[in-house]
Amino acid sequence: MSETAQSDTMLRVEGVSKSFGGLQASKDISMSVPRGKITSLIGPNGAGKTTLFALITGFHKPDAGKVSFFGEDITGMAPQDIALRGMIRTFQIVQPFAGQSVRENIAVGAHLHIRSRDAALAKAEEVARKVGLGDRLDMDAAALTVAGRKRLEVARALATDPKLILFDEVLAGLNPSEIRDVIPVIRAIRDEGVTILLIEHVMQAVMSLSEHTWVLNQGELIAQGPPAEVVGDPLVIEAYLGKGMAERIARQRMTAGGAHA
Amino acid sequence: MPDLAIIVPSVLNGLTTGALYALVALGLTLIYGVLHIINFAHGALLMVGLYAVYFLHSSFGIDPYVSLLIVPPAMFALGYALQRGIIGRASHGRDENILLVTLGLSIVIENLALFVFRSDTRSVDTPYSFEVVEILGAFLPLPKVIAFAGALVTAALLWLLMSRTDLGRAIRALAKERKGAKLVGIDVDHVFAMSFGLGIACLGVAACLLLPSYYVTPQVGHGFVLIAFTIVVLGGMGSFVGALVGGLIIGVVEALGGLFLGESLGQIGIFLIFILVLVFRPTGLLGHKV
Amino acid sequence: MTDTKKTGGLRRREFLATGAAAVGLGITGFPAILRAQPAAVKLGLIHPVSGFIAFSGTQCREGALMAIADINAAGGIKSLGGAQIEAMLADSQGKPEIGAAEVTKMVEAGADGIVAGYSSAISLATSQEAAKTNTPHIVDVGVSDQIVERGLKNTFRFSPGYGKTAQFAVDNLDTINKAAGSPAKTAMIIHEESLFGTGTAELLQKRLPEKGIKVVDVIKHANPTRDFTNIVLQIKSKKPDLIIPANYYNEYVLLARTMRQQRVEAMGIYSVLGGAASSYQFVKEFPEAADLIMDCNHWFNPKSDVAQQRKAAAEAKGLIYTYEVFLAYNAVLAYADALERAGTTDKEAVNAALAASTLDMSYMPYGPTKMVDGQNEGAQPVNTQVQNGVIEVIFPEEFASAETVFPMKS
Amino acid sequence: MRQLALLGLVFAALFFVPFVVTSEAWQNTILMTLYAALLGQAWNILGGYGGQFSFGHAAFFGTGAYTVAVLQVQLGVNPWIGLVAGGLMAVAVAAFIGFTTFRYGLRGSYFALVTLAFAEVLRILANTVPFTGAGVGILIPLDQSAANLQFASKASYYWLVWAIALAAFLTVWWIGHSRFGARLMAVRDNEDAARALGVDPFAVKMRAIMLSGLFSGLAGVFYAQYFLYLDPAIAYGPAISVESLLVPIVGGMGTLFGPLLGAVALHGVSEASRALIGDLPGISLVLYGTILILMVLFAPRGLAGLVRRLSARRNSRETTNV
Amino acid sequence: MLEIDNLRAGYGAVEVLRGVSLDIRGGEIVALLGSNGVGKTTISSVLSGLLPAWSGTIRFKGEPIAGLSPQAIVDRGLIHVPEGRHIFPNLAVRENLELGAYRRGKPNRARNLERVMEIFPRLRERSGQKAGTLSGGEQQMLAIGRGMMAEPDLLILDEPSIGLSPLLVEEMFALIGKLNESGLPILLVEQNVLQSMEIAERAFVMENGEIRLSGPTAQLMDDPELKRSYLGLA
Q1: Checking phi first, is residue D76 left (phi over 0); if not, alpha (psi -120 to 50) or beta?
Q2: Looking at this predicted complex, what is its ipTM?
Q3: Which domains are delineated in chain D?
Q4: Among A250, C208, D24, D189, which is most exposed with the fewest C-beta within 10 angstroms?
Q5: Which residues pair with C118 in a beta bridge?
Q6: Taking the CB of residue D10, how many other CB atoms lie within 10 A of it?
Q7: What's the pTM value of the predicted model, to 2 decimals?
Q8: Which residues of B touch D114 (CB under 8 A)?
Q9: Does residue B228 sit within a domain?
Q10: CA-to-CA distance for E87 and E97, rounded, in angstroms?
Q11: Before C396, cis peptide (omega within 30)?
Q12: What domains are defined for chain A?
């Protein structure tokens, strides 16, 4: 990653490691998330992306290393305190507060800085419209479709007026048209000044949304850079598609190129 | 301050009493460990077992220990039917429903017993009721020594059943991994009912071993339920060895608590241990980390 | 013993049926009275027939129903033109709030009087509730002295409270001890933890030293106590001359059994309001454990033919003749007597009649009935002793059926 | 707001009960039903809205009851002050139990069992320490006057319990319409998701258990003043804990009117079974238990759930008709 | 062997499978591919009776099996080795394997156990150990071994390579190939495209609850659609 100036760094992760039992889930990971941008974290299943999110947002305590947010050391701080400072995460498996309406679900987020119930509900409504849930405000959140749940997850986070949102696979499980609908929503959030770090599987989204990406495999950072470059990295291709795939693709390309030549 | 001459027999007696508690707790830990049910009807079902033993003795002259051949299988059938017919159907996937339904069962069973048997205290008089065994200068009542051995044997049999039979393995498998169990073709409803039946059969064993040194009334179960829960928690839910050890510990704690704090206040020791274990080691002394 | 048990339920139903038949007979058998059509007197019976103390509650109910059947069969309340007594039954489930609620309901349903109790806690609630409508309320069993010390004008008790009993117990123990040459110098009290045991134990602890008997230890135990070995071990180590239990039947059974198993040797076991040592059930089931145990408790006058007939009648109905049965029986009799004298069911008048009661209770080992603040001052317990499987009255002398055996031969 | 209006309507109607119902027995039945609804609503705050199942609400109830009784009998403190003190002492006990259990993250059946144990510990203590009268219990002297919080008429007691119940129901309405309530329910439904949104589960649960304890304690104060006698089994016995949880579970947990529905249903069944077959010992309770089992089998989400289901069915029928 | 026709299913009100059709013939390995959340696991759950089908038909060995209980499906020889392994962590390795023959293959249990131990020597070494203490790869072997104990007529392997190191992934695929050598048909549900394709005869690629591509792997492998679809570049 091109060295961003210190003052532009919103979140800094330095040498963070974590193991569960014998399994090393994160190995000495360092990264700096710049302010005002959309960046992403990719990697195959089981690479340790969600674990890293949990380490950053206080759900797990790192064995080693340091996490700082706006220059403040937040390592080991409770999730709610980190949320209060403006960093909010979402969950890969969306678990709405079942039995409560969409509006009520989002209001929980809105209450982070708003005491009044009415104001929070109003804010929830506003946010819901923004993410495209305006027509389902009174629906039981448990009855939402996968796509609806993802939007709800985004809305809940957004309602907290965050400075940084960590989205964990908000696009997974959506069909292409749904993805096409959600992408502008995420952009709009960024345009309002919220910094975004995505965990994503859907490469298309990563490529069209993020300016910088980190690739995690087996708990280690194996590559980083602009997404278009990163997907060409043999290490990344192998991590995703299995050993030998990079070679085969290169061969394909060569034969294709040869045919054209 | 009590001297050694009283502490030794007191501890020995606490161990025999604790074994009786463990017998009641064995069934509970099986049910709790596998079905994750807080079985409020446990005490009422113990009472059913005790009445069965009592009537076999008073009507047919069957010795309570001979009843071991009759009462536990009958209790097993009762437990199986209850789980299959009522408890399993009532849960609808919600714990509070199980709580309500077992509470309802205990109310029904207890008051049926009250209606049918009336509320007299009944006890059996056997030739060995007053026999004692002398160990280390302590007189231990023979029925309680037998119960102690019975608790050990029952725990051992349960352990064998659980580790050496397909049913036992299926029960243990189901306790931790429901989806995996379904995928190897374990009939979940059947095995749940088998577990509940086994747990209630344990109560049948407890009833046979308990009655010679105790009595039965429609409310008799109440005195054992809370203590059985304590033992289950202390030993680790689902652990037979834990239940056995937990029972013995509670028996001794009760005995020593009674000696040092007085019989009434001494009961507090049991609950303090209970709270401390729950707060600091909720998996129990012998339980595994979750 | 097992025979009566097996048929207990059946006999009880028979009994209820015959009771009902008796009421029917009473009406059809006296056409003259039927013509006069005296309104039946409604008497509410509130007892804990379910829950933890169901046994005692049921015994109370049976005793009261027997009394009603007897009174009706004998022509009802004559001063009311032979009015029959009609029982209203309710179950307090062992809970004061349900007892009180039943009082309210019964009063509204036209109850002229209430006989209620067994548990002191329930008696406190029911008498207080009945007081609001000034409904005559007789406590059949309920030993707390607080019941009659609250200044309630409608509340009466014809049996002794624990104050009287404890005093009596101590005085007689002293007499028994002195007669034997004062061998007993120390005592140990074992009592259950609720009101009756604790209250009794406190009084005993205060009074025994006045008689030169040192209380070496007081052990309070829970209900239920599942094992008495510990307590008995402590008794053994303290070696008291006298062991004084005050507890309920279940615990008494375990205690007595354990004392035998542990070979406790004492000069005497002298229970106070224990119930078990003067229980036919206990004596039958554990004749050896029961032998020579003394009890200071409610009892009937064994020399009274009336009392013996009632006992026989109750046993013929499959009942164990416990103190609950005859105390509840007496409570109903006392109410009927007050009605008879009042000549009206007017509550004020009946209360006055109860307060002025001089009912002849010679079937009990009582002095002349004299009500002071609702308590029959003539009431007293007696001492009984189990001798060769028979419950003998040993004190006071005028009622005694046998000589005291003290100290026990070991 | 519609809910608040309905609540107002129900309580306004309840207020006039003593004027309309002159039978003392019926007044008492309605009073005891409202009292059960109060106990249930107290439990509902923690159990229904907070998802923390307590089996030991007697710990709070008994503390409230004993506080008012002991202050009066031992120290001569006026029971109106005792009313406040009883509530506060119950809050203190709740805070202690909450702190010990929530700090260590106890949930589910572990939490249930630990609360049960705390209530037992208090029962044994009350049985032992002298100032509660130990096993003899504590009798509040009869002295009927409003200044003494003792009333001659059922109606006055009725309005006392009405007022406390109203406060409890308003509190629960507020929970449904406040930030605290939103957070409480969020923690109940998904603790991790709530934390991610900045909710501190420990703080939220502490507030819930303290509020819950407050109303249980006030119910205890009422009991003491109404029946004037307490012993450890009455105050701290499991019967109170069981009634506290039975009422809202039967009626519908986590709903404003669930405890009221539950109290009406349970008391209705209990009264009816006692009236029908009260003479046979135990049989009325057999019926009661059977109805409880049948309810779980056929109305697993409580009466409120049943009502909702039926009305949903009716609505859908209406819409299909349209 | 297995024919699925126009299968629809989902969770609650949410439809996940929107009309899936696929088939497996005797003796072949068929790969079912697709990225996270496209509905692959939902298919295997419906096949093994864990989840009800909303509509459509499933025929196994010619008989309809949709709506049967999991144990009835096991009885018929369709064995599902689930994603996430779902082994019994509190039971010893040997016990896990023995339970594999709970309903099927009991008479030959000892022989089959020996065979599984031969295929997975690591399981023999650890046979007394609690399954929960095994490493991820060993747990996966155990899950497959447990499935083999039921003498399957068709084996569904759901994400067997997930969470394994590259070396282990290779080993796993080699093993799967070996299992198939004796003629056992396998439905391999995977995200690992290349290696799955290498051992499978045919493949179905899912996207968003539907089959997007299908055909012999040799053809699919060079289909440019594949990479796009798989990496989410579509």
Answers
A1: left
A2: 0.88
A3: 2-321 (1.10.3470)
A4: A250
A5: none
A6: 14
A7: 0.90
A8: 274-275, 278-279
A9: no
A10: 9
A11: yes
A12: 4-230 (3.40.50.300), 231-261 (no CATH)
Is the CB of B184 less than 8 angstroms away from the CB of E146? yes
Best of C59, C60, C97 to mutate (most D CBs within 10 Å, chain D): C97
Q: Which of E41, E54, E66, E72 is nearest to E10 (CA)?
A: E54
Q: Which of B36, B89, B108 sits opposite D289 (nearest CB)?
A: B108
Is B102 part of any domain? yes
DSSP state of D46: I
CATH topology of domain C41-160+302-379: Rossmann fold (3.40.50)
E105 CB within 8 Å of a chain B CB: no
What is the homologous superfamily of the domain C163-297+383-399 according to CATH?
Response regulator (3.40.50.2300)
Structural domain boundaries enclosing B153: 24-220
Q: Residue C335 burial by CB count (10 A; 0-12/13-18/19+): exposed, middle or buried?
A: buried
> Among partner residues D178, D192, D197, which is closest to A109 by beta-carbon distance?
D197
Chain C contact set for B259 (CB, 8 A) = 230, 234
Q: How many CB atoms lie within 10 A of CB A98?
A: 12
Task: Note whether A79 contacts D: Cβ–Cβ < 8 A.
Answer: yes
Answer yes or no: same fold for C41-160+302-379 and C163-297+383-399.
yes
Taking the mean position of all CA atoms in its chain, how far away is CA E35?
16
Q: φ, ψ for residue C27 (rounded to 5)?
A: -80, -50
Within a domain: residue B246?
no
B239 located within any domain:
no
CB C200 within 8 A of CB C273: yes
Specify whether the CB–CB gap between C334 and C73 falls below 8 A.
no
**CA D321 centroid distance within chain:** 42
**Amino acid of residue C195:** L
Distance CA C142, CA C162 (A): 9
C88 and D CB contact within 8 Å: no
Q: Kind of pairing, strands C155-157 and C137-139?
A: parallel
pLDDT in tens, chain A (261 residues): 444 445 588 999 999 999 887 678 899 999 999 999 999 998 877 788 889 999 999 999 999 999 999 999 999 899 999 999 999 999 988 889 988 999 999 999 999 999 999 999 999 999 999 988 999 999 999 888 878 888 999 999 999 999 999 999 888 767 777 788 888 889 999 999 999 999 987 677 788 889 999 999 888 999 999 988 887 788 887 777 666 666 666 666 666 544 443
